[in-house]
Design a protein that fits this description.
Elements (H helix, E strand, L loop, with lengths): L9 H17 L7 E2 L2 E2 L10 H4 L4 H10 L8 E5 L9 E3 L11 E5 L16 H13 L15 H9 L11
Parallel strand pairs: 3-5
Antiparallel strand pairs: 1-2, 4-5
Helix pairs in contact: 1-4
Length: 172
């Protein structure tokens, strides 16, 4: 079902809030393709039904179909309008070498219930989910296990996770 997320403000507002936050944190933003002054977002009807994606490893089935639709060497963020098939709210294709391109990140709309209401809003967990997945596609991986457990999950996030911390799973 097309919820028209490509023509409403949900995706652009979410991307704007996390990019503004990232600029404040590190002085850089994620560069998105643009069209007529806005983020280039388009609706694509994938060739399978959700039931055809769901039986086994939905993420890799989505990847296979999306790779056929995007230009070679382009990274893509897919906002999949359907339920997830695991505990993950998003998944990403992690590059095997430095500088690799053509990675895909998938965020499932079943997890997006509270994205930014305006481009000037403070980003929230739903907005950071997208940024988290994009960073995986850029090559960020979860850190190895600590040799000594931190005193709290907040300290754990501060010590090793930062953006890659997943509060729903209490891990990074």
């Amino acid at each position: 079902v097309d919820r028209q997320l490509d023509v409403t403000s949900a995706i652009p507002y979410s991307l704007a809030t996390v990019n503004r936050w990232l600029q404040a944190q590190i002085g850089r933003k994620v560069r998105f393709d643009t069209f007529q002054g806005g983020v280039d977002i388009q609706f694509v009807q994938l060739p399978r039904t959700d039931a055809e994606y769901a039986p086994d490893n939905k993420f890799f089935r989505i990847l296979t179909d999306v790779y056929q639709l995007i230009a070679p060497g382009k990274n893509a963020l897919v906002v999949y309008e359907g339920p997830r098939d695991s505990d993950a709210c998003g998944e990403s294709d992690i590059p095997l070498e430095v500088g690799a391109t053509g990675q895909i990140s998938v965020v499932y709309t079943s997890c997006l219930s509270n994205t930014a209401p305006s481009p000037d809003a403070q980003p929230n967990t739903d907005d950071f989910l997208t940024l988290h997945e994009l960073f995986h596609a850029f090559g960020a991986v979860h850190p190895p296990q600590l040799t000594q457990p931190p005193a709290s999950s907040d300290e754990y996030a501060r010590l090793v996770c930062d953006l890659m911390y997943d509060p729903k799973m209490n891990t990074c």
